[in-house]
Amino acid sequence: MVRTEAPEDAYTAVPFLPGRLTLGGLREAAAGCRGCPLHRDAMQTVFGAGAEDARVMLVGEQPGDQEDRQGRPFVGPAGRLLDRALAEAGIDPGEAYVTNAVKHFKFARSGPGKRRIHKAPSLREMTACGPWLAAELAVVEPELVVVLGATAGKALLGSSFRVGRVRGTVLEEEIHGRPRRLVPTVHPSSVLRADDREAAYRGLVGDLEVAARVLS
Known about the structure:
- The chain has one domain: Uracil-DNA glycosylase-like domain (Uracil-DNA Glycosylase, subunit E, 3-Layer(aba) Sandwich).
- Helices cover 38% and strands 17% of the residues.
- Strands 2-1-5-7-6 form a 5-stranded mixed beta sheet. It has a two-stranded antiparallel sheet with strand order 3-4.
- Helix 4 crosses helix 5.
- The radius of gyration is 17 Å and the shape is globular.
- The protein starts with 22 loop residues before the first helix and ends with a helix.
């Protein structure tokens, strides 16, 4: 059966989810998701990556330019910085499952050469993409979720989430009907934009050290 794009008054990925939830099946199904308009301009769906039995899941905002081109999450500059921070905090990046709240790159073209500049996804787009994240959580069943930035926090915890208020703390919340432990921190891309990168990086590592202690 061919599924067309969801109507504007009903943006949701639900019709595109497979009947049986496995990471391979989810990844294959997500490649054809038309649940919101973001697929129109993105090169491809960027699904999560990592082991099905990962103890920790890291959730970011959305793919960036390099992720959209390569089809894998966190492979650009922010991803490389995140890997370094994880390793320094005592978490093996190779043993984590990494994904994003939104699976397509949202951007605007600007400047010389019309570079693709990141645009934050809307609440409607995050909500539409939410079933994919819920399915990933259900399959992986991580012991801990590391929330990377405000958009991921709002997708998981609601629109009142403020990363500055709770970063580096351990939260116990019900997410998609299941109790979860979460440690919020900033998105690594914010470190790259910071005036004092070293201080911002040390803050990220400190938050991830909290996550490492939870997993120890």
